[in-house]
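In response to a reviewer's request, we include the raw inputs and outputs for one of the modeled complexes. The two entities were modeled together in a single run.
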Amino acid sequence: MKRVWHRLERYSPPGYEWKEELNLIVGYFVVAVLISFWFFREFQSAMNLVSPSAYMPPFEVLIKKSFFMIRFLPFHMARYIWLRYQYFNKETKSIYLMLRLPRRFEYHFRCWALPVIFILSAILLSMVTKAIYFLFYTYMVPLSAWPPGQSMNLWSVIL
Amino acid sequence: MIELKRVKKYYDETYALRDINLQLPRGEIVGLFGENGAGKTTLMKSILNFIDYQGSITLDGQPITTKNIAQLSFATSEHSFFPNLSPAAHRDFYQMHFPKFSHKRFQGLMEFFELPMGTALKKFSTGQKNQFEVIMALSQGADYILMDEPFSGNDIFNREDFYKVLLGILEPHETVLFSTHLIEEVAGFIGRAVLIRKGQIVGDVSLMQLEEEGKDLVSYIKETYHYKPDRVSKALKELT
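The model returned the following structure tokens for the whole complex.
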């Protein structure tokens, strides 16, 4: 674990308080997953309404409200990136050191790396959650109530 | 050698640098003098590629890029370290990025200035911060060390210690370009003086040449700047 922390430090500006951000992001992910449980409520309501001759609403309709939080993440990350660039001009002009580094992209890398990792993690998390919900949907919805046009291909649903 | 040819820089419509031609060979200690706003900092920032400029600046005939930038180090009164990191963490960072980083020099200077190795730099006094800034510039392993008012805020004893240490540790291939207002203090330690005024180089002389002419640095600077010694008495007469 210590090695992971040490490695992550290389993905942020030196001395930057990224651990606090990491805690916030983990909290954000937890809340996002909890909100996604809304899917089960929507699913339950739809199941109750389905008559023997009716179809279930498509999977995409049921999850529509459950994954809205991920849409806000790029805005948060844009702010994090901006804060990182600001950091190099805060208190001292460490920007002068960053601009003198022989590694050409080090300065920008340290501003972008973790926010991009956070976004990719969020996308991965939402894909995994969607996949689990879709498997649940396919298992629970009887074939007779399967909505016309609803894909059964997992990848086409989660991507 | 660092060579500047017809370097110009202007902000809006004001010239910060006008047609600067300057050569900085290896092994020199050069003092860069000028009033506030004369263009000293702009000149250094242009050499370091921090700002855009017109003209050409080369290092051993090559433009200054990431390929050769490690040959230049920079100490500034604005400080370029990370305030949350300790000197030890800075040492590790420099070692990671600058292959010629001199651990021996770093350690020696840290001990000489009695700076704590494990304390975050934001807890240092201004004088200690200046010392650390200079230590990093000297330890990076650069051939050209640029210092912009590195000791504003340090006491005289501190500064004198530094001059002596610098003279003692510099290798023959190392060049120092040093901007300061403390002309009398550095006169005994620089080998060449470059005078800049309103973005133009108005004087460039070796201290040896001055010595041969029987002049001292302060009078040379006053002469070049057309300093009027009776300026103060005239002003006082008018005011009283």
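As requested, we also summarize the result in words. Residues 2-158 of chain A form one domain. DSSP finds eight helices and no strands in chain A.
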